[in-house]
Specification:
Elements (H helix, E strand, L loop, with lengths): L5 H12 L3 H12 L6 H14 L4 H11 L4 H13 L3 H14 L4 H13 L3 H14 L4 H13 L3 H14 L4 H13 L3 H14 L6 H14 L3 H14 L6 H12 L9 H22 L2
Helix pairs in contact: 1-2, 1-3, 2-3, 3-4, 3-5, 4-5, 5-6, 6-7, 7-8, 7-9, 8-9, 9-10, 10-11, 11-12, 12-13, 13-14, 13-16, 14-15
Length: 291
C-alpha cells in the first residue's frame, strides 16, 4: 500500500473475514483517505459495501479494476456486486474479463454458465458447463448445474446420467439423489425409482423426512399397479408421518386392494397431487437447508 500500513489493512481484512462488515468497511474507507488509489483497499471497501447494501460498492469495485485491470479476483468481485444489483449482463461481462485473465479457473466458467442460464440462454450455459467438464471431469458444481439444466431442456437421459455421476462422487447429496429418483420416475423406470427412493430414505437423516422417500416408493408402485406393495408402503409411511400427509394415499391403496367401501375413496388424481406436493416440499426443505 502507498501510505496505509500493512497491519492496518490486515486488520480491516480480518474484520471482513470475521463477518464484521460494518467495521471492515469503516476501516477501509478511513485508509482510503490516505491511499485513494490503493486497489486492495478499494476491493475491501467494495466487497464490504456489497454485504452492507451500500450504493457506492459497485463504483469502488469499478475503480479497483480500473487501477488493477489484470486482477481476475477484482473482476470476480465486481461481477458479484453487479449481480447483487440485478445487472446480469454486466456481471457476465465482468466474469468474462476474469476468465480472460485466468482461463484455467473452472469456477469462473461455472459462474458464467449460471449467469447465462439466468439470462435465458440454457443451451449456452450447458455448453459452458460441458466445457468445464472437459477441463475438470469431476467438477461437482458443473455436474450439479448440468442436472438441472438438462432437466429444464427435457434431456432427461442426460440429466439422469450426470445425476448418477454426482451421486457416485457425493453419495450423501440428498438433492441430487432426489433428482435421480425423480428422473427415473419421469423415464418410467419404476424398479430403478424404487431403489433410488430407498437410497434417499437411507441418506436423508433430517427429522420427519423419511415419509417423503416412502411416498416416492409408493408412487413408483402405483404407476406399475402393484397395489399390495403400495398399500404396505402406505402403512409404513403412516408410522413416520406426523402430519397426515399419507391419509388419502392409504385410503386409495386400501380401495385398490380390498375394493370400495362405504366411504368415497380419493381419486387417483387426488393421490398423484399429494405425491407431487410431497416431492416438491422435500426439495424445498433441502434447498432451504442449503444442501
Amino acid at each position: 500500500m502507498a501510505n496505509a500500513s500493512t497491519a492496518s489493512y490486515e486488520q480491516a481484512l480480518a474484520l471482513y473475514q470475521s463477518g464484521d462488515f460494518e467495521a471492515s468497511h469503516e476501516a477501509a474507507v478511513e485508509l482510503l483517505q490516505a491511499s485513494p488509489q490503493d486497489p486492495n483497499l478499494l476491493l475491501l471497501a467494495g466487497k464490504a459495501g456489497v454485504e452492507l447494501g451500500h450504493d457506492d460498492a459497485v463504483a469502488q469495485l469499478e475503480q479497483a479494476v480500473g487501477v488493477d485491470p489484470e486482477n481476475p479476483d477484482a473482476w470476480r468481485d465486481l461481477a458479484d456486486a453487479l449481480l447483487a444489483e440485478g445487472r446480469s449482463d454486466d456481471a457476465a461481462n465482468a466474469i468474462k474479463q476474469a476468465i480472460e485473465r485466468r482461463p484455467e479457473d473452472v469456477a469462473l466458467l461455472v459462474d458464467l454458465a449460471h449467469l447465462a442460464h439466468a439470462a435465458g440462454n440454457t443451451e449456452g450455459a450447458i455448453g459452458t458447463l460441458e466445457q468445464v467438464l472437459e477441463l475438470d471431469f469431476g467438477n461437482v458444481a458443473a455436474l450439479r448445474g448440468l442436472v438441472g439444466m438438462y432437466r429444464e431442456a427435457n434431456r432427461l437421459e442426460d440429466a439422469l446420467r450426470v445425476g448418477r455421476k454426482v451421486v457416485a462422487y457425493r453419495p450423501e447429496d440428498v438433492l441430487t439423489a432426489l433428482d435421480v429418483a425423480e428422473l427415473t420416475l419421469a423415464l418410467d423406470r419404476m424398479e430403478e425409482a424404487v431403489e433410488a427412493f430407498r437410497w434417499l430414505r437411507d441418506i436423508d437423516d433430517e427429522p420427519d423426512h423419511e415419509v417423503y422417500a416412502v411416498h416416492g416408493m409408493i408412487e413408483a408402485e402405483l404407476r406399475r399397479e402393484r397395489w399390495r406393495a403400495a398399500l404396505d408402503l402406505a402403512v409404513d409411511a403412516t408410522r413416520v408421518d406426523r402430519f397426515g400427509r399419507t391419509t388419502d394415499i392409504l385410503a386409495y391403496a386400501v380401495t385398490q386392494v380390498f375394493g370400495a367401501g362405504d366411504r368415497p375413496a380419493p381419486s387417483r388424481r387426488d393421490v398423484d397431487d399429494v405425491l407431487a406436493a410431497s416431492r416438491d416440499e422435500h426439495r424445498r426443505l433441502h434447498a432451504a437447508l442449503g444442501f
